[in-house]
Amino acid sequence: MLDKHIITTLQQISGKDHVLTDKADLICYSYDATQRQFLPDVVVHPGTVEEISRIMKLANEEKIPVFPRGAGTGFTGGSVPTAGGIVLGLTRFDNILEIDEENLVARIEPGVVTEDFQKAVEKVGLFYPPDPASLKVSTMGGNVAECAGGPRCVKYGVTKDYIIGLEIVTPTGDIIKTGGPTMKGVVGYDLTKLICGSEGTLAIITKIIVKLLPLPEAKKTMLVLFDSIDGAAQAVSAIIRGKIIPTTLEFLDARTLDCIRQATDLDVPEAARAVLLIEVDGDREFLDKQVAKISAIVQPLGVVEVRVAETPAESEALWQIRRSISASLRQVNPDKFNEDICVPRSKVPEMIRKIERISDHYQIPIVNYGHAGDGNIHVNIMVDERVPGDHEKAEKAVFEVFEGALELGGTMSGEHGVGIMKAPFLDMELSANVVDYMKTIKRALDPNNILNPGKIFPSDVKTH
Fold it and tell me: Could you give the strand order of the β-sheet that contains 19-20, starting from the edge strand earlier in sequence?
């Protein structure tokens, strides 16, 4: 519980209407997509960077933990207030400040919703490619903090590839700028890239400079059904060897297709044991040639059927198979452990077989889909928390999934970050000296460990 004078000071900084202390309000900021819940002592919605600076100076002096928060869509507990303290909500920072059509850059605030930003730049013929699944809700500040990805990463890269400058507030309250609007800049350390993906542990983002691309003229969607996951994985490598980099290369495994068949009336042939959803974009005149070339490349690899969309409505129908997954999973079991491992794309079939063995061993369903072009597998361990032992079995399965990914030269997180959910497994992937190096940076920038404490690194921070 914070002293009354702290609450009063926060009200003086940001106004009484923007400081929340009622328990009903606090509960709304106590959890994210993990459903792990930690109640903050207070929620503050500052309106200016100067207010944030004053709040951080106060918190640093009084040693009060501060937890920056966007939309709370994260899957690893990155924004939850594990030590009480202050939740710093950034939803008032929701302005698109500038779209520079000549230099292909934009300046925005962190509370801008990702899809709103994409639509704004597309209206003037420009393109912001990163497209996390949460884009209709998630904010750009959260995307930067987690270095979000999405289906288009295989061709266009992830969030950090488009962030060229930031305005940030440090844990001690300083306001600084990193990078800038130029496409090149190598003066000093690249602090922009350091902050991108730091999960809110090193700074609070208050402005973002984003690199944009020209909007592709057109796109074309195709759905390829295979008789095995091996054929689908071989197709991915063969397509890229064929000098075609699709915009998206999404895959669904056999268990995912079984879920879709059971929960929907979508047309998925029984012979199909894996699916690739492929989209290409660019000049309209080249798209038909690319689709024809892809069809020829994949044909010898156990293809059951190829569907090519000729209209936007047909494209939407193909994507509906991918979008139906989340709802269909709930038909399997009500509760889900959602992990996002990444392996070299040629190792996807081997990883899927490892997961199938884990599923059989623990007798719990595991459903897999994801971004085949970059080997990013979304592993959904489906359990019923009401069944005794299911939770424990799922936790053991998670450990073995991470172990399997690392054995294949992969990582335990391709998109979601570490937060609190994967912090206990950190030493499985990172050596002690690497973790120490990271902790040295954290201590240097946040000497009192007040900014998002307890995230990424396992710690003795008391949680409640």
Answer: 19-20, 42-44, 86-89, 66-69
Query: What is the predicted pLDDT for the residue at 174?
Result: 98
Decide: helix, strand or coil at residue 425: helix
d(CA 349, CA 229): 6
Q: What is the pLDDT of residues 62-93, one digit of tens each?
A: 999 999 999 999 999 999 999 999 999 999 99
Q: What is the DSSP letter of 95?
A: -
**Is the domain covering 332-421 a CATH 3.30.70.2740 domain?**
yes
* Tokens found for residue 209: 């400079």
Residues 6+ apart with CB under 8 A from 393: 362, 363, 364, 383
Report the length, in residues, of the chain: 464
Q: Where in the chain is the domain with CATH 3.30.43.10?
A: 4-91
Phi first, then psi, for residue 312 (nearest 5°) are -55, -40
Residue spans in the chain of domains classed CATH 3.30.70.2190: 218-327
Fold of 218-327: Alpha-Beta Plaits (3.30.70)
- As given in the structure block, the two tokens for residue 97 are 């400040």
* Per-residue pLDDT, 212: 98
Question: What is the dihedral angle through the alpha carbons of 265, 266, 269, 273, rounded to the nearest 10 degrees?
Answer: -110
Query: DSSP class of residue 275?
Result: E
